[in-house]
Task: structure prediction
Amino acid sequence: MSQLSSYLPEDIKNFLLVHQEEQNSEQSKSLKKLLSVQDKISIFKNINPEELKAIVYDLKFIRAAHQDVIIKENDESRDIFFIIDGECEVLREGNKLGTLRPGEIFGESGAIFHSKRNASVVCASEEVKLLSFKIDENNLEFCSVALATLYKNLAHEINAKLEEINYAYIIK
Result:
């Protein structure tokens, strides 16, 4: 018998309610905003909104100005970012690797693999609007399907980036 099957549906529901109550009012506002646009963010596709509330935390909507550093190369932060508006440049050792645009995510590899950041990400527009969050892996027993879906969606994003790099640098 799996550990998950030892929990009753009421236990899971109570856990999700308690988890939701623990979040401060700013987080609640951010979660409401996120849930209102969840279907527009590919990495949150096919995730139950109640479970999404339990698997993401430290959710912030950020406004950054031109040349602000969002991620610093070799940093060990675990934030994942989604660009709402504006553009960012990806730099490695000061060399520009590419440009990130609205609808794209970054920071997912460091968050998933708990590794240092491979590159810096700097605001290229006058203003950049971002969604920042972390993944709460401690809720695996209650939200395993949602976490699996999130990681699958993130894997698709990483694969798309690898295909783009292959096309730009290897196939051409």
About this structure: The longest strand covers residues 56-65.
